Amino acid sequence: MNSSVNLLKNLPAIDKLLQSKNLSAQIDKFGQKSVKDEGRRQIADLREAILASDDGSIAWLSAPDFFDEFCGKISAAVQAQYSSSLIPVFNLTGTVIHTNLGRASLPAEAVEAMVTAATNATNLEYDLHTGKRGDRDSHLEQAICEMTGAQAATVVNNNAAAVLLVLNTLALHKEVIISRGELVEIGGAFRIPDVMASASCKLREVGTTNRTHLKDYAQAINDDTGLLMKVHTSNYEIRGFTNSVAESDLSELARERDIPFVSDLGSGSLVDLRQFNLPHEPTVKDTIDMGADLITFSGDKLLGGPQAGIIVGRRDLIERVKSNPLKRALRVDKITMAALLAVINIYKDPQRLDSRLPMLADLARPLAEIEEVATAVLGPVAERLKGRATVSVQDCKSQIGSGALPLDLMSSRALCLTPIAEKGKTDEALQRLSLGFRSLPKPVVGRVSDGQLFFDLRCLRNIDEFLQQLPQLAD
Ligand SMILES: *Cc1c(COP(=O)(O)O)cnc(C)c1O
């Protein structure tokens, strides 16, 4: 007991900590309150440890470096409180538009526009000509319409919101006719039947899983029908004995029966991707030309912009969508609008798209360039993992991701890491190796398959940054 009392006397006083040179930089940076609160917390922890110990276990307190080390501990804890858990990573998964890794990276033009919008008052909803309230959508509508050939457009928080809003506006308490083969689930929370229920619509499935015909839709139409809907089967493909109804046929049927036809494109590309040697995906313009009344698509999938949901189509329907009170809850802010507009403007110069949009640059990256990356990283990674894993370069296939073209794969090169371990311990070694790479300052996220760790090098741009952190890989 006596020794504890003595040790307690040695606890540093909070004032002494706050006045010490060791913490002055952190006080300047984060303010006195944060450092003081953390200092008090750590002193209290130390006091508790002293009281709980027999005697000698708090030898640290009388060590010569104690004060400096204690300040260092406080300093690190304060720093940690302010550091974000949202950090950049290397996406070497081979899925370019990876939803869990934040989808598209934005071009410099969009970032600049976001900063300007964020740091200034803007005419977001203010008409500079009349001096009266303006329309938030006006800034984007014209550009989107020019790009897609649509009569009108509006933008919400994401495509899930776009689908929800369209359903709720046009088919509240009514039936929505959709093919059984298109009741998609996109990553957990977005499932068409659930979205229908949330929008207070009644799902009316027609056809079968593999085959749906025009007559199935036609026979299902009744007085209670709110709209006909087609949903892009983004992340799967039904093969074999199949039939689905073309957009053009559905829009004709919808027009005859005076019901709106809505197409949820999911990814929605603005340009024909074949010009970049990528697989064909119907563009928003194609779908409008085929007669869809409204189309919904994402801003951060194949468009390569910020998270947003874009709704385009007939002016009268867009007006109804805009006047739904839910629109207010789902609308985008000025920062997203600025980014989206900057990205859409890049599309006005279609030839250079693949050099100006980072997402498209990755998708269309020439194999020769990926091979150069492989050559540059193979040696250093092999050297770092000597004795722990064998490293080789292998052919692999990248995916577009985010539900775009699930079956179309692009040729790429990967570093293939095979752990060297005793029999029965390879799985553990593999997990440790992947965790090691994920624990680096800029985490490296790869793909584990067949007992090996693959780093698809398609999206690796900053080779130096990648190599410089290798020494920090845990052993
Ligand atoms: C991705 C996708 C959605 C959801 O879009 P978010 O932008 O992720 O909200 C909806 N429908 C389809 C067909 C999709 O592919």
Could you explain the architecture of this structure?
With 475 residues, the chain is α/β, with parallel strands linked by helices. It has helices at 2-10, 14-19, 24-30, 32-52, 66-82, 108-119, 138-148, 159-170, 192-198, 214-220, 247-256, 284-289, 315-323, 325-330, 334-346, 353-356, 358-363, 367-384, 426-438, 463-468; strands at residues 90-91, 126-127, 132-133, 152-156, 175-179, 185-186, 190-191, 202-206, 225-231, 261-266, 294-298, 309-313, 389-401, 404-419, 444-445, 447-449, 452-456. Strands 4-12-11-10-9-5-8 form a seven-stranded mixed β-sheet, sandwiched between helices. A four-stranded antiparallel β-sheet has the order 13-14-17-16. Pyridoxal-5'-phosphate binds at residues 158-160, 163, 184, 186, 190, 231-232, 234, 264, 266-267, 298, 309, 403.
How do the helices and strands line up, and which of them pair or pack?
Elements: H1 2-10, H2 14-19, H3 24-30, H4 32-52, H5 66-82, E1 90-91, H6 108-119, E2 126-127, E3 132-133, H7 138-148, E4 152-156, H8 159-170, E5 175-179, E6 185-186, E7 190-191, H9 192-198, E8 202-206, H10 214-220, E9 225-231, H11 247-256, E10 261-266, H12 284-289, E11 294-298, E12 309-313, H13 315-323, H14 325-330, H15 334-346, H16 353-356, H17 358-363, H18 367-384, E13 389-401, E14 404-419, H19 426-438, E15 444-445, E16 447-449, E17 452-456, H20 463-468
Parallel strand pairs: 1-15, 5-8, 5-9, 9-10, 10-11
Antiparallel strand pairs: 2-3, 4-12, 6-7, 11-12, 13-14, 14-17, 16-17
The chain binds pyridoxal-5'-phosphate.
Pyridoxal-5'-phosphate (PLP) binds at residues 158-160, 163, 184, 186, 190, 231-232, 234, 264, 266-267, 298, 309, 403.
